[in-house]
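Dear Dr. K.,

Following up on our conversation at the group meeting, I've run the structure prediction for Transcription antiterminator from Macrococcus equipercicus. I'm pasting the input sequence below exactly as I used it, so you can double-check it against your construct before we proceed with anything downstream. Let me know if the numbering doesn't match what you have in your notebook.
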Amino acid sequence: MGEYIIEKALNNNVLIANYYGEEVVLIGKGISFGKKQGQRIEADKIEKIYELRGYHEQERYKTLLGMTNDRVIKTVIEVVDTIKEMAYGEVNDSILLSLTDHIIFALKRLEDGIVIANPFLKETEALYPKEFDIATKVVDMLNDKLRVYFPDTEKGFIALHIHSSINNHTMREMNMMTEVVARAVQIIEHDLKIQVDKDSLVYARFVRHISFAVQRVMINDRPPEQRNLEKLLKLQYPACYNIAVKIVKMMQQQLNKPVYESELVYLTMHIQQFNTEVEDV
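The predicted structure tokens came back this morning:
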């Protein structure tokens, strides 16, 4: 094992070190106590290591360190540790940088009284329930440790960061997914003249279906044709079938990829469930 050379101590338990020219965040009980810049850190003192990959990540993290105080940095690291534990270690180290960046600017907005709306909060919760549960715990931690009050909208933003880190999806890809879901629901509400209950099981199933449909489109996976069932649904539920056609066209525009007509069968059945739910009320 090579040597870890101290660059900056954040507190007694957290420091920034240099390891063969790469910057890393080292965590360990009393790891920084009595240590100075340029000194070596013994391997047996290190409990956790977060790598900052590449020049741009390293420079960005340095910039962020200068924009806030050690209390915030320490809290973010504790938050990342909690996320890793709750996600069974599935998250990659990039979340340290992305969450540090996000939380610093979220705190700044909070201080300035700026509230950013999150129109896809319910969609995010339905798409990524595990990550949303973790994000809820994270927001509670931040509020408690930093003595602030982040609104519920932060849960959605942080859930996306967690999902991105676990699955290596870009924020752009996830924003596209939530927007497709939101637009599909808008079409259903407009054409069926209903208000979709976003806490219902029907909504959760529909969101999951759209999620899988988008994933199929992105990898060009074609569901099996069901022509007879499609004809039957078109005759029996014409309004729902026409809505499904509109949603498929919207998906093609949003994703800039063809969506196979076989998706119409599944979409029509899900849309009819919204109709049934309203009729049963």
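Two things stood out to me. The chain has a mean pLDDT of 87. The first helix runs from residue 54 to 65.

Best regards,
J.T.
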